[in-house]
Specification:
By secondary structure, the protein is an alpha+beta fold. It folds into 2 domains: 2-23 and 84-166, Roll (PH-domain like); 29-80, no CATH class. It has helices spanning 29-44, 54-81, 147-166; strands spanning 2-4, 15-21, 84-90, 94-99, 106-110, 116-120, 129-134, 137-140. It has a 5-stranded antiparallel sheet with strand order 1-2-3-4-5, with helices on one face. Strands 6-7-8 form a 3-stranded antiparallel sheet, with helices on one face. The protein is elongated and about 75 Å long.
């Protein structure tokens, strides 16, 4: 998901583009709790008639294991949801900060004049694979975005770079 930001910390000069990119979330915290409750009831209700029997024990073990795996994958999904990227483009510099939960921030800086935006439409890894090139490096942008959002992001970055280079 793309979000245009109104303010940027430590910004000393006017900016042409300030954006935050973050993964799409199909459920918020409340929705997740509802799904969690429905799945817990779905696992618990069929076991109730068999409590105390060997079948009940077997059902409890398999249901518990399945529920544990569900919680593990849900936690992994929420950790990936905490990943985001921030982009700042001004007349004299472009800064991209990639942030992940419990990891060190990765920062890339470049000059807008030398920075180029590339989209590889036929990339086997990702459709509409978006990269920035400058300072002898290529960095990936918005790998967690949808293909259409990457195209939209490319257009916004190209417009901001054009404004920076024309000024």
């Amino acid at each position: 998901m793309l979000k245009v930001m109104d303010n940027w910390n430590n910004s000393e000069e006017p900016t042409l583009l300030r954006m935050r990119l973050f993964p799409n979330r199909s459920l918020d915290k409340h929705g997740t709790k509802v799904v969690f409750g429905i799945i817990a009831c779905g696992f618990l209700l069929p076991i109730i008639p068999f409590i105390g029997s060997p079948i009940g024990t077997t059902l409890t073990i398999f249901s518990g294991l399945t529920f544990y795996l569900f919680l593990t994958f849900l936690q992994k999904s929420f950790q990936q949801g905490a990943t985001f990227e921030e982009i700042l483009i001004s007349k004299s510099k472009i800064i991209v900060v990639h942030k992940e939960k419990n990891k060190e921030d990765k920062t890339w800086e470049g000059n807008p004049y030398w920075t180029r935006v590339n989209v590889d439409i036929d990339n086997p890894k990702l459709k509409n694979y978006l990269t920035l090139a400058g300072k002898g490096r290529h960095i990936e942008l918005g790998a967690f975005l949808s293909p259409n959002e990457r195209i939209e992001l490319r257009d916004k970055i190209q417009n901001a770079l054009a404004k920076a280079n024309s000024a």
